[in-house]
Design brief:
The protein has 453 residues and is α/β, with parallel strands linked by helices. It has helices at residues 14-25, 107-112, 125-138, 183-187, 260-270, 317-338, 347-359, 363-367, 371-375, 378-387, 401-419, 421-428, 435-438, 440-445, and strands spanning 5-10, 30-34, 63-65, 70-73, 78-81, 86-89, 92-95, 101-104, 120-123, 142-145, 149-155, 158-163, 168-176, 196-208, 218-221, 230-241, 244-253, 281-293, 300-301, 304-306. It binds flavin-adenine dinucleotide (FAD).
Length: 453
């Protein structure tokens, strides 16, 4: 352990490790502090889909070069070593409570086209993180596992990062890449400036032997009469378990006090979708919880930068987090080369964040993904889903989906006007309603932790 590093990274997820790698490639001294004992152990549930191979996300279209074992970010000009398994999937189906279906990509047509028709692919996140750690260590990054960061303060010319073991790490800059429930954002008082929209909990299992209508697709069943609503989620895993395909099966809802295990049992044993899971075998349990805040508008305070989920509204996705990491790593390198160890020194990152996160990706658009199940009853959702017959574009970008849904809704307006004018009036009001109003119950039910210590 050095007396002081150029960069101390808090959190060894994709954002933190890519930042560490980028800084170390350019000769900086870097420490990574991770609270888990093994970086590659995935404790927090993740769909592990690559967002996005079939469309753009944050201005980037990711390329998977299988031959070279690389995930490439051509617009951002960096690559990640990835020679692990992948599995293509071809469509995304969202089901109403009565099994009406909105389809993003026609499964059979897309599947017949092979790679050219895929919605995207799933990858092995554990494999990716292991590779990144190896690369970082090879470049001289000091990776400290089992170090849970407790506090971060500017002291003189350095940022002092303190862990629960009482260790102190000093850096010219520190990077908060500690994920969705960022303690750094909380202790530095950053969350006080953010709007709170609720707490999201997901529980599930990795399962084999499922009987899915389309095995290599993402399925999202909306469950009956949930208040607040509950969404199922089934997606293939990249790897096999003793030669059998594996899927992640989970339920997500915004009531932290709900009996999530019972909700999962309901999906797999009692719901209209239960036939998918008959005979299914549970391989591994997983889950996660996290708060939804508005994004951090200015990801810098006292020489601490914020990247990835730590600064975002819901999830930046692995690809978004990696882009943040690459950008923040480069910005710190620039600051060190110029000898300008201030906010100005890392201006290129702050400008990029403003353009790609704040200006281009309005978090209110993302939150609109939650509106319909909250504002409409089961019958209304069944009706709307039954009317949308078009196959929508096969994209995974959570900011593009509401746009595509909006276009599909425009087409069915004449039919709704004729058949259910009251519903049309309700739907027309959607765009006018602020998130704070629509999500008022999820906000009340959630555990806001915007206080600092
Ligand atoms: C249910 C679900 C499904 C998802 N599906 C997908 C998907 O299909 N595709 C996709 O790309 N993304 C998906 N995501 C999102 C993806 O997991 C994240 O966006 C991504 O991992 C963010 O990377 P990050 O580096 O910012 O944070 P994380 O990956 O969360 O990494 C943060 C790291 O910081 C560590 N840490 C936290 N606190 C401390 C502390 N105090 N001290 C030290 N270390 C700390 C954590 O242990 C962790 O290792 C999903 C997320 C969820 C919840």
């Amino acid at each position: 352990m050095k007396n002081a590093y150029d960069l101390v990274v808090i959190g060894a997820g994709p954002a933190g490790l890519v930042a560490a790698k980028t800084a170390a490639e350019n000769g900086l001294s870097v420490a990574v502090l991770e609270r888990k004992d093994a970086v590659h152990e995935i404790l927090r549930m993740c769909g592990q889909m690559i967002v996005s191979l079939s469309g753009k996300y944050m201005g980037e279209r990711v390329v998977h070069n299988e031959q070279a074992g690389l995930l490439c970010f051509p617009h951002n000009g960096f690559t990640l070593k990835y020679d692990g398994p992948t599995k293509d999937f071809y469509a995304w189906n969202i089901y109403s409570p009565n099994e009406e279906k909105i389809v993003f990509g026609d499964y059979e047509t897309n599947k017949s086209k092979g790679k050219a028709g895929r919605a995207s692919a799933v990858y092995d996140k554990s494999w990716l993180l292991r590779s990144l750690v190896e690369e970082c260590k090879h470049l001289g990054v000091e990776v400290f596992t089992g170090e849970n960061v407790l506090d971060v303060r500017k002291e003189g010319e350095f940022v002092d990062v303190q862990t629960t073991r009482g260790k102190h790490f000093k850096g010219v800059y520190a990077l908060a890449a500690d994920g969705r429930q960022s303690r750094v954002a909380r202790v530095m008082g950053i969350n006080k400036q953010r709007n709170f929209y609720g707490s999201v909990t997901s529980v599930g299992y990795e399962m084999t032997n499922l009987n899915l209508p389309e095995p290599y697709a993402l399925h999202q069943p909306l469950m009956e009469s949930g208040d607040p609503p509950m969404l199922g989620f089934v997606v293939p895993r990249a790897w096999d378990y003793h030669g059998e395909d594996v899927w992640l099966v989970m339920v997500t809802n915004v009531d932290p006090e709900a009996d999530h295990e019972a909700l999962l049992d309901n999906l797999t044993e009692k719901s209209k979708f239960s036939s998918w899971f008959k005979g299914g075998r549970k391989v591994r349990r997983c889950g996660c919880a996290g708060n939804m805040y508005s994004p951090i508008l200015h990801p810098f305070k006292d020489n601490v930068l914020f990247a990835g989920d730590a600064g975002w509204c819901q999830e930046a996705e692995m690809t978004g987090a990696a882009m943040c990491g690459a950008r923040v790593g480069s910005a710190v390198v620039e600051a060190m080369l110029e000898g300008n160890y201030t906010e100005e020194g890392v201006r290129s990152y702050l400008d990029w964040w403003k353009e790609y996160h704040i200006s281009r990706l309005d978090h209110n658009v993302f939150l609109k993904n939650l509106y319909m199940p909250i504002l409409c009853n089961d019958g209304e959702i069944d009706y709307i889903f039954s009317k949308i017959q078009d196959v929508l574009p096969t994209v995974l970008d959570p900011y593009e989906v509401p746009e595509n849904m909006g276009r599909a809704m425009l087409k069915i307006i004449p039919a709704i006007q004729q058949e259910k004018p009251a519903l049309l009036q309700k739907l027309s009001g959607f765009n006018e309603l602020p998130a704070e109003t629509v999500l008022r119950n999820t906000i009340r039910a959630g555990f806001n932790c915007s206080f600092s210590t």
